[in-house]
Design goal:
The chain is of the alpha/beta class. Helices cover 38% and strands 16% of the residues. It folds into two domains: 138 residues, Aspartate Aminotransferase, domain 1, CATH 3.90.1150; 214 residues, Type I PLP-dependent aspartate aminotransferase-like (Major domain) (Aspartate Aminotransferase, domain 2, 3-Layer(aba) Sandwich), CATH 3.40.640.10. The protein is built from twelve helices and 13 strands. The mean pLDDT is 96. Bound molecules: 4'-deoxy-4'-aminopyridoxal-5'-phosphate (PMP).
Length: 358
């Protein structure tokens, strides 16, 4: 018997989730100093956390286990989202909540409209569920009829929607969501980017106990490296999620930073506004070159269709100049690049490099 014989055979065809590489690894690979990297490939918040948030994380009692009931954090999040603390579950990033929900529902199949954030497919497969991918329409709105059909045909009890969607940046239409909430399925609406635009669907939870909204501190609060996210749902569903999560899933530094970020949210709102303004300026300047066509976005990134040349080559040439954007090697996004909104200097470096490539 080999080691492989002891392991699950159904994971043999699992494609790796392709995560972005950390700054220092990339800088070393490209031979440029870290401070010269223009990192527009992972929708991170390049302003970084506020000093007060950093200080809170640094002051955490690292020798003490975190609170498994997440009492303070759930209360602070509930105040921010305007729900009851019993409706909130925190996790090690929104990714952790995606995993918890899949394991709680344990469906044979999971329906994902594509193009989509890759983690739904990846975690579904790891949990032994079949991801059923339903192509969005040409304007990237949902194909509601096909999704409904897929849920009914496969017995999928779980649907993942993203609002605004990654990588397309468009918001979810409320009528589309309502048409799906009547299904016998848990409908997850991932609002990882909602602080940058789009109207939250949290108020719909009151009438739809099968709706779960996911959020994260990774983007607006610039805490991607600390891993804090949360879900908002009916209290019944939240209680079940609390029962199966790892007790210490949010570490003490992450909890302290998240609490500080919520406390200082008025200050952070200024950088959110700056990023939104930069999204608009970046879109205008890049579109002005004449060969990159933007899709309207309400998130902190923009998907561009590249005309007249291969997107892969543009991404590679930018990379040589220390500018990182996201290229997707898959048919439904062929000829596209996703570019995050950064600081004004990041946009300037991007536009200068693209002008050189024009
Ligand atoms: N959902 C979406 C749509 C995302 O794009 C991302 C991050 N790329 C996440 C969730 C993950 O968030 P977190 O860092 O909180 O795990």
């Amino acid at each position: 018997m080999t080691l492989r014989d002891l392991l699950r055979p159904d994971l043999d065809d699992l494609e790796d989730y392709v995560p972005v590489k950390p700054y220092d690894v990339l800088a070393a690979e490209l031979g440029v100093p870290v401070e010269r990297l223009v990192k527009l490939d992972a929708n991170e918040n390049l302003y970084g956390p506020l000093p007060a948030v950093r200080a809170a994380a640094a002051a955490a009692d690292l020798h003490i286990y975190p609170d498994p009931g997440q009492t303070r954090l759930r209360a602070a999040i509930a105040d921010y989202v305007q729900v009851d603390p019993a409706q909130v579950v925190a996790g090690a990033g929104a990714d952790d909540l995606i995993d918890i929900i899949i394991r709680l529902v344990d469906p044979p199949a999971v329906v994902v409209p594509t193009p989509a954030f890759g983690m739904y497919r990846f975690l579904a497969k790891v949990a032994g569920a079949t991801p059923i991918e339903i192509r969005r329409r040409p304007n990237f709105d949902l194909d509601v009829v096909a999704i409904r059909h897929a849920v009914q045909e496969t017995g999928a009890r779980l649907v993942f929607l993203t609002h605004p969607n990654n990588p397309t940046g468009n918001p979810l239409q409320i009528a589309e969501l309502e048409a799906l909430l009547s299904l016998d399925a848990i409908v997850v609406v991932d609002e990882a980017y909602i602080e940058f635009g789009g109207r939250t669907v949290v108020p719909l939870i009151r009438h739809h106990p099968n709706l779960v909204v996911l959020r994260t501190f990774s983007k607006w609060a610039a805490l991607a490296g600390l891993r804090v996210g949360y879900s908002v749902s009916s209290p019944e569903l939240a209680a079940e999620m609390m029962r199966i999560k790892q007790p210490y899933n949010v570490n003490v530094a992450a909890e302290a930073a998240a609490l500080a970020a919520l406390e200082h949210r008025a200050e952070i709102a200024k950088t959110i506004a700056a990023i939104v303004a930069e999204r608009e300026r970046m879109t205008r300047l890049v579109a002005g070159l004449g060969w990159l066509e933007p899709l309207p976005s309400v998130a902190n990134f923009v998907l561009f269709a590249v005309h007249g040349r291969p997107a892969r080559e543009i991404a590679a040439s930018l990379r040589q100049r220390g500018i990182l954007v996201r290229y997707y090697d898959r048919p439904d996004l062929a000829g596209h690049l996703r570019i995050s909104a950064g600081r004004p200097a990041d946009t300037d470096a991007l536009v200068t490099a693209l002008q050189e490539l024009s």
